[in-house]
UniProtKB/TrEMBL annotation:
SMART domains: ENDO3c. Pfam families: HhH-GPD. It comes from Paenibacillus motobuensis. Keywords: DNA damage, DNA repair. It catalyses: Hydrolysis of alkylated DNA, releasing 3-methyladenine, 3-methylguanine, 7-methylguanine and 7-methyladenine. This is DNA-3-methyladenine glycosylase II.
Length: 223
């Protein structure tokens, strides 16, 4: 099964519900317009890519991923299991990441983690299954729930970008505990994932770090 591609636009009932529940989110949605995500790949490849990409730049991750695919032929449990630790390290994987990939392959091949049946589990149980894999933390599991399984009500509290974007959106005073999402995420239920996608897009399009408020960005866009 492949990852989910989101295509969100103003006429989407979920977007209308979000806008009605949180007027500032509605303003942001109107400012950004439609959003598309195009990640389409098998579940195993998606998780393997997440492990490869941890704590390195996007460019470095892409380069290492290409070398791993060139070595193994594809990102699949059987193909990766057939490679030696030495060859995987030569492709650019750290010793820790080789161990993580091995654990992922072993758990999938043994049936301990059935990626195709995660969809049958609720959010909490699916997350627990994913974090049982070495190298997969809560944030990576939450990203998989959103983009791999299409779960609609995930807000990753541990995502520093989302916290920053939530603070900007609602023009909040600085907090020493940095808990901005916790103040407002309840308004986005049951579509927290879609709110998250708009907040990430607000970062990607430069709104959050512009030094301007939401109102100023809207005014600027109108001229």
């Amino acid at each position: 099964m492949s990852s989910i591609a989101f295509h969100i636009h103003a006429d989407d009932p979920r977007v209308k519900s979000l806008s009605a529940a949180d007027s500032r989110m509605g303003t942001l949605i109107a400012l950004i317009g439609e959003v598309k995500t195009n990640t389409q790949e098998p579940h195993f490849a998606s998780i393997a890519r997440s492990i490869i990409s941890q704590q390195i730049s996007v460019k470095a991750a892409a380069s290492i991923r290409s070398r791993v695919i060139e070595l193994a032929g594809e990102l699949s449990p059987a193909a990766l299991s057939a490679q030696s630790d030495e060859d995987l390290r030569a492709a650019g994987l750290s010793t820790a990441k080789v161990a993580y990939i091995r654990d992922l392959c072993d758990k999938v091949l043994s049936g301990d983690v059935d990626l195709e049946r995660l969809q049958e589990l609720n959010d909490e149980d699916a997350t627990a299954k994913l974090v049982s894999i070495k190298g997969i933390g809560k944030w990576t599991a939450e990203m998989f729930l959103i983009f791999g399984l299409g779960r609609e009500n995930i807000v990753s509290i541990g995502d520093a970008g989302l916290q920053r974007a939530a603070r900007w959106l609602h023009n909040m005073e600085e907090r020493s505990d940095r808990k901005y999402l916790q103040q407002v995420a309840h308004m986005w239920e049951p579509y927290g994932s879609i709110a998250s996608i708009y907040l990430w897009e607000a970062i990607n399009t430069g709104h959050v770090d512009s030094g301007e408020t939401l109102e100023e960005r809207v005014s600027q866009a109108a001229h």
